[in-house]
Amino acid sequence: MRSYSPLSLLLLALALSACVASTHAASHSVRGRLFRPPQPQAGSPDTFTAPSWTLARATSPNLRPIVGIVSLANSDSPDETKSSISAAYVKWLEQAGARVAVVPFNAPHDVLDQLFDGINGLLFTGGGLSLDADSLYFKQALYLFNKAKEANDAGDFFPIWGTCQGFQLLNLLAALPEDHASILKCNAYDSTNIVLPLDFSAEAPTSLLYGPAQKVAAFVDGSSSESIYDVLAKRNVTMNLHNCGVSPEDFNNNPVLPSFYYSLSTNVDLRGKPFISTIQGRRYPFIGTQYHSERVQFEWDFPEKLNHEGYSIAVASYISQRFMGFVRKSQHKFPSVEAETAALIYMYTPTYNGDNPHDTYPAQQVYYFDFKY
């Protein structure tokens, strides 16, 4: 019997589904109209800071959400076909109630379009790729970023999350500077393997990401009355693994970034050099953290100074749950069960890498792909 790859199954399922999509056109066409903003109720979470996108809400939450993770190319080569996703990101989303779809970094635009219409949010992971404007990874990310902007502008709610390199990417995608180095400084920070509290900005207490954390207990055993917000502000819980960063000065001097994102927190590296550590979109539901909240629960390499205390785990869980609250607002849906199943990461098996002595801070479980188009 002939065997088919997961990618072939996905493309076949999407093609078959297109045959019946026209019969559902009327129901699909109302998707954008589900997000006409109602008036926020006093005391509701929508009273937190975000002048536009917090008002957009579906008539009912999506209880079968799927987040697409863009696979990380193995190299910056324009001919690269191999990529990966650290399993920690998958687990981080799954523990908050999501399923995960693989978004191949090198997929043609028609495949990206089909995947975008089926997923309810997008995650750009950490990594060490070039974010030059002419790199394939950046071009593909820009295509998806612009699709998300267009969708939200049309009332079709769609959130994006960026972690570490993904955070840096979100800054570049919004500003599109002629010189990326005017925003992103690489090999400029001594902030690898340091765990820090956040230095919150004035906007943080009323932000959509961190504001509700003031009412969420960080100690489930009741041994302390500290909230998630308190822990983030006072304890070493955010893991940093980066030597590139966006400084507050470069952020604020850019003609686009201060009006596109709120800066919710900053930090300083081991030499006292400041960097932005959290951003939240003003008009769009795009959020990025320079720190890694997915590693606290799901990575165990010995060199890494991860804080595995219960309150630190609670913080990481809160962050993923908060993102998932936005993801559930999206009403995107694959055209068939077959297309949905073929897109999910369940079609792949992670590889255990263990404590690789050649990798200082290894991802201990990784999904590997070889997408050829």
Properties at a glance:
alpha/beta, 4-stranded antiparallel β-sheet, single chain, Rossmann fold, 19% strand, 373 residues
Looking at this structure, what is the CATH superfamily? Class I glutamine amidotransferase (GATase) domain
Distance between the termini: 24 Å
Largest sheet: 8 strands, mixed
Total beta strands = 16
Low-confidence residue ranges: 18-47
Account of the 3D structure:
The structure is a single chain. The protein has one domain (6-15, 64-370): Rossmann fold (3-Layer(aba) Sandwich), CATH 3.40.50. 31% of the residues lie in helices and 19% in strands. It is built from twelve helices and 16 strands. Strands 4-1-5-6-14-13-12-9 form an eight-stranded mixed β-sheet, with helices on both faces. β2 (72-73) and β3 (82-86) form a beta hairpin. The relative contact order is 0.19. Residues 18-47 have low confidence and may be disordered.
Question: What is this entry, summarized?
Answer:
The protein is an alpha/beta fold. The protein contains twelve helices and 16 strands.
